[in-house]
Design brief:
This protein is mainly alpha-helical. The protein is about 45% helix and about 5% strand. It has 5 helices and 2 strands, in the order H-H-H-E-E-H-H. It has a two-stranded antiparallel ribbon. A hairpin with a 2-residue loop joins strand 1 and strand 2.
Length: about 200
């Protein structure tokens, strides 16, 4: 089996056959094709209202089944993406190694030739070779140690950063109704979450 295509055709779940899902077995009276539009911008064929426990239970089952299909597709896509990235890295490695090695051999000659001219670009029949200064590198390996030293010896290297406390601001604006310029706030609305039942083992 190919490493790029690790799944057989049988192992990939196809679009469920009508009548095979739990929601269609438990709720045979609901016609998905009329209730749920295939196009999000298109209106449903009939106006459907959830106004009793049976309809609510059906909607929850449909949401959970749809979430499961989305999760399965996402997992499959992530697997393929990872394999493609691995293939790309392995395929490019010999060429990247060649570039690194040839650049190592070429750099001393280019530096010597550029030192003899004003331009920092060496023009050759097959291409141009240039020297560019890379940014200076600074890495703080121990922030606490460096901060303690600079506070004592070089306070000009220490930046005191002012930040707003969001928890205090939320209390002032949302609870005490005090408007503060430059800040927008609103009370978080309720959002519907659907989770499967957790059944205890007998």
């Amino acid at each position: 089996m190919s490493t790029l295509y690790p799944f057989s055709q049988d192992s990939i779940e196809q679009t469920p056959i009508p009548g095979s899902s739990l929601s269609t077995i438990l709720f045979p009276d609901f016609d998905d094709t009329q209730i749920i539009p295939s196009d999000s911008e298109a209106p449903a064929t009939v106006q459907f209202t959830i106004d009793d426990p049976s309809k609510a239970a059906w909607a929850i089952a449909r949401i959970l089944e749809t979430d499961a299909r989305i999760a399965q597709r996402t997992s499959l896509a992530d697997t393929y993406k990872a394999r493609i990235d691995q293939w790309l890295a392995m395929s490019n490695k010999p060429d990247n190694d060649s570039i690194t090695y040839l650049s190592f051999l070429l750099e001393p000659y280019v530096k010597d030739e550029i030192a003899k001219q004003k331009s920092r670009t060496l023009s050759m029949p097959t291409g141009n070779a240039s020297l560019r200064k890379l940014p200076d590198r600074l890495e703080i390996t121990d922030s606490a140690e460096a901060l303690a030293y600079c506070e004592a010896e070089h306070p000009e290297a220490v930046i005191i950063k002012k930040e707003l406390d969001k928890s205090v601001l939320k209390d002032l604006i949302l609870k005490q109704a005090e408007p503060i310029p430059g800040i927008e706030a609103e009370i978080g609305p309720d959002k519907l979450y659907i989770k499967p039942l957790k059944l205890k083992a007998a």
